[in-house]
Design a protein that fits this description.
With about 290 residues, the protein is an alpha/beta fold. It has helices at about 25-30, 50-60, 80-95, 120-140, 160-170, 180-190, 195-200, 235-250, 265-289, and strands at about 15, 35-40, 65, 95-100, 105, 110-115, 145, 175-180, 205-210, 215-220, 225, 255. The chain has one domain (about 15-289): TIM Barrel (Alpha-Beta Barrel). An 8-stranded parallel beta barrel has the order 1-2-3-4-7-8-9-12. Helix 4 crosses helix 5 (about 160-170), helix 7 (about 195-200) packs parallel to helix 8 (about 235-250) and helix 8 (about 235-250) packs parallel to helix 9. It is globular and about 50 Å long.
Length: about 290
């Protein structure tokens, strides 16, 4: 395990998804960025420059590990080799947080390289609860589960997404990661009110926020279709929705994701600085209280 001198918890400030081209800038002057997120699967190898850089970063910043390959919602058992490699990383890094997605990405031994949707039914709930409990027991720590971006809905669902996530959190003791861009993308694609979604979300279980950019496309009928691309600045309506979230949930660690067409450090840091400014009223209220 790394010997970390700083407080190894995520601060109620802005973090960014770490990209290797930003290593020098982060070590020189991180600006308002107070923590970093890495994708677990990028650091499951043995040695090399990625882990060497991560060691230096972990000595300076709290780190959150975000998984994309466990297939929490998959119908088959969790991959024991993947879980073992994840535990090796978690035990070595001792991150401030670990999170995964409400999705599935494996079938019949094949990895599909995408985060695919689920019906919100009792059988899905039972399966996801079993998998989350397995992950938490194996890692010896609490995990967070992230709401997905959606492009279709299932007629057989018996819960809304916020209701389903509440059931998962209550059954497993996991926390929730509220991705505000995912809410906006899903609301546009499935034609529901994103504010109403937030108003029914179990905000008392939320421990982290995500913000990201999206692309606009059209479906086969010419209707607007948003894609959670992580390749642009956060869109203005998402900032507005983020203000609504903060007004109801208060301040939590917030991550700016930018995974494609990664910009210069100054652009990403400016997005993080804006996220911090949006949370300042909630942070001020907490200090006064």
């Amino acid at each position: 395990m790394l010997d970390i001198a700083h407080d190894n918890t995520l601060p109620n400030g802005a973090g960014v998804g770490y990209k290797s081209q930003h290593f020098a800038a982060l070590m020189d002057d991180p600006g308002t960025v107070s923590w970093l997120e890495i994708h677990a699967e990028n650091y499951m190898g043995d040695g090399g420059r990625p882990l060497a850089q991560l060691r230096h970063l972990a000595e300076r910043f709290p780190i959150s590990v975000h998984g994309v390959g466990l297939s929490i919602g998959g119908e088959t058992r969790l991959d024991p080799e993947h879980l073992a490699r994840l535990k090796t990383l978690i035990d070595w890094l001792n991150p401030a947080m670990f999170s995964e997605h409400l999705a599935w990405s494996t079938h019949d031994g094949a990895f599909l390289n995408d985060l695919l949707p689920l019906p919100y039914t009792i059988s899905t709930l039972n399966r996801i609860a079993t998998h989350i409990n397995q992950v938490q027991d194996h890692l010896g720590r609490k995990m967070l589960l992230e709401n997905p971006s959606s492009y279709l809905a299932f007629a057989e669902s018996t819960w809304s997404e916020p209701e389903f996530l509440r059931e998962v959190a209550q059954r497993t003791g996991c926390g929730l990661l509220l991705d505000v861009n995912n809410v906006f993308v899903s609301a546009t694609n499935l034609e529901f009110d994103p504010r109403a979604y937030i108003d029914t979300f179990p905000l008392d279980q939320v421990e982290e926020f995500h913000l990201a950019g999206h692309d606009e496309d059209a479906d086969e009928l010419g209707r607007k279709l948003l894609i959670d691309s992580h390749g642009k600045p956060v869109d203005e309506p998402v900032w507005t929705l983020f203000d609504h979230v903060i007004a109801h949930a208060g301040a939590h660690p917030v991550l700016v994701e930018w995974d494609n067409d990664v910009p210069e450090w100054e652009v990403l840091e400016a997005e993080a600085a804006r996220a911090t400014r949006h949370m300042e009223p909630a942070l001020s209220e907490r200090v006064q209280a």
